[in-house]
Design goal:
It is a single chain. By secondary structure, this protein is of the alpha+beta class. It contains twelve helices and seven strands. Strands 1-4-5-6-7 form a five-stranded mixed sheet, sandwiched between helices. It has a two-stranded antiparallel sheet with strand order 2-3. Strand 4 (about 170-175) and strand 5 form a beta hairpin.
């Protein structure tokens, strides 16, 4: 199974990816596997704000499709409700860790004791208001485009037998082309693989919903929040780019399978690499039990020793 978020996590920290998606939890007792899996999905409050913001954007777009427009007051109410729900859901997960004795470590790792809900809401509203002032959303609001769809990426596609969860957020028909739009809530620095990653949207959607099969009938548009503004990137689709994207996906899946093969029968992760950057560790609730949690450089050296010991 491939998605952009899974790829990003795999590249950022294979160990976190293993616990979140790949570990054979059947080798652990039920309580242990539940604890690790739930810990892997605990997020800093900032990430919960971004998820709530994206959810609110989808809800507003879906209503816009039905010719229902939101007021500013209603938008603010919805984002508050969505954020409150996500905070409540995470608190329920945290209650499990309070029982098993891991709550305090998670609180300290992710600074969950300090939450400023109003500041989170302010940032979310700023993003949504700015998005609604972009040219593409304004065009939809003003009914310039008659054919457009909203997707939540819960439906999977397939390429060469690989399940894909990488649909666009919005598809809009403009003249003779369909524009596939992805909204990136926390845009990272430009990746050299940005086009190949984004072209996976074409693999996911072509031939569905009576859309074209030919790759050159699509245009890719990325709307990414960077440095306090929505930045837009646009490029044309082609069969050559689609082939390159497919190769990237196949290579990723191959590397993921190799990584899984390094996992011991007892779920030992001594050969699973640690994070590339300490910034990844700061977002991880598993830091307390990770050899690189308190000092990544030291953890990497410690793991190298373990790998050599297993090979000898």
């Amino acid at each position: 199974m491939w998605s952009k978020s899974r790829r990003e996590l795999f590249l950022a920290c294979p160990r976190w990816w293993i616990i979140r998606y790949g570990i054979n939890q059947g080798n652990w007792d039920r309580s242990t596997s539940k604890k690790w899996h739930s810990m892997s999905d605990i997020r800093p409050y900032w990430d919960l704000m971004l998820r709530s913001c994206k959810q609110t954007i989808f809800e507003r777009l879906e209503d816009l499709q039905m010719n229902v427009e939101w007021s500013q007051l209603y938008t603010e109410r919805r984002i508050r409700e969505n954020l409150t729900n996500k905070l409540s859901q995470q608190q329920k997960i945290m209650s499990i860790h309070e029982i098993v004795g891991t709550k305090n470590a998670i609180d300290d790792n992710l600074e969950l004791n300090n939450v400023n809900v109003e500041n989170l809401l302010k940032n979310a509203i700023k993003r949504i208001d700015a998005l609604w002032n972009t040219d593409i959303i304004q065009a939809l609001t003003n009914r310039y485009h008659k054919q457009w769809m909203v997707f939540e990426r819960t439906e999977y596609g397939s390429v060469n037998g690989i399940d894909l969860y990488c649909g666009p957020d919005i598809a809009v028909k403009m003249q003779n082309h369909w524009h596939l739009i992805r909204i990136d809530m926390q845009g990272k620095k430009d990746s050299c693989f940005e086009e190949e990653e984004a072209m996976a949207m074409v693999s996911w959607i072509r031939g569905k919903y009576n859309l074209p099969i030919l790759a050159n009938k699509f245009v890719i548009r990325i709307i990414a929040w960077r440095y306090g503004f929505w930045n837009q990137h646009r490029f044309n689709s082609s069969e050559q780019k689609l082939t390159q994207s497919t190769h990237l996906i196949e290579s990723d899946i191959n590397q993921m399978q190799i990584m899984l093969s390094k996992l011991g029968d007892d779920n030992s992760m001594s050969q699973i690499p640690l994070a590339k950057k300490t910034s990844t560790c700061r977002k991880c609730a598993l830091r307390e039990s990770c050899p690189g949690g308190s000092n990544l450089s030291s953890g990497i050296m410690q793991q190298s020793v373990l790998e050599l010991a297993e090979l000898s």
